[in-house]
Specification:
2 domains, 9 helices, UDP-galactose 4-epimerase, domain 1, 299 residues, alpha/beta, two-stranded parallel sheet, Rossmann fold
Length: 299
């Protein structure tokens, strides 16, 4: 039985990963502050990752899935606290690519500040660089927007709300802006393949190989709920994030290296149905934003 350390384990990606690897027969240790219910079957190390002390001394792991690192200091602190580990996988972000680079974005592109994502992207760049300097053999994953069961960010859940309430859907401009997604289960499957196959490639863009327009994405969300949307176009002068859950920012990742390791990904339509099924039972776990209130008051 392989032993894994997963940072987090209580919210969206890290929680889903803990559940996934427990089901797959791994011995899963999670590192978190124990402020939320734990996944059944895990071993908890209760600590704040910014103040780890000796909590991991004497423990060794076949793999470390670092899902909650946002800065270089986060990575350095965990590495300092670990006694022994095999494969280290950092979930970074596509926000490490500057927004003005030619697309599609490949893993060989230069990383640096992104004017859309700001400090979040800059911190992820720092996390990657610290890890590469200390663990050259580590894996780094750069996903686009993650979605699926457990997503506590008000993205697909917002569209589900609009669909289930029979509301019109307000689209930015002509609705042609494209987005790229990756299902949380595909992310976990890919991490498991890295643990098993240990490919020579160390940095991977991960995501669905096709992007979809925001209009197509909204249509799929509505259809998951058994509805068809009626669209309203919103002028570009209205701040997009006030009524829509994504930035006015289109980018596309080249994921050919991912597909060489994992050729199949979950179809977006299927993944959204799974997300809606989870959301119907867990609405209180999603961090809502006042998008609908803004629409009702201003649009």
């Amino acid at each position: 039985m392989k032993k894994l350390l997963i940072t987090g384990g209580t919210n969206f990606v890290s929680r889903y990963a803990a559940e996934y690897f427990v089901r797959r027969g791994y011995a899963v240790t999670v590192l978190n502050r124990n402020s939320r219910p734990q996944v059944e079957g895990v071993t908890l190390v209760e600590a704040d990752r910014h103040d780890l002390g000796d909590c991991l001394r004497g423990l060794s792991f076949d793999g470390v899935l670092d899902i909650t690192a946002y800065t270089g200091a986060d990575v350095a602190g965990l590495l300092d606290a670990l006694d022994g580990f095999g494969t280290y996988i950092l979930v970074s972000s596509s926000a490490v690519y500057p927004e003005n680079q030619a697309q599609p974005l490949t893993e060989e592109r230069e990383i640096g500040p992104n004017g859309i994502w700001g400090i979040y992207g800059t911190n992820k760049v720092d996390a990657e660089r610290v890890l590469q300097s200390r663990v050259p053999g580590a894996y780094i994953l750069r996903p686009p927007y993650l979605y699926g069961p457990g997503n506590n960010v008000y993205r697909e859940a917002f569209v589900f709300d609009c669909a289930m309430e029979g509301r019109k859907f307000y689209l930015p401009g002509d609705g042609k802006m494209k987005l790229q997604f990756f299902h949380v289960d595909d992310l976990c499957r890919f991490m498991e393949l890295l643990l098993e196959k240990k490919p020579q490639q160390r940095i991977f863009n991960v995501g669905n190989p096709q992007a979809v327009s925001v209009r197509e994405w909204a249509e799929l969300c509505y259809r998951a709920a058994g509805k068809e949307p009626e669209f309203v176009s919103v002028d570009k002068n209205v701040e997009q994030r006030r009524y829509f859950p994504f930035y006015d920012y289109e980018y596309f990742l080249d994921v050919e290296k991912q597909l060489a390791v994992m050729p199949r990904v979950k179809p977006l339509e299927e993944g959204l149905r799974e997300a809606l099924e989870w959301y119907r039972e867990n609405r209180g776990l999603v961090n809502r934003k006042p998008l609908i209130a803004f629409i009702d008051e201003n649009l």
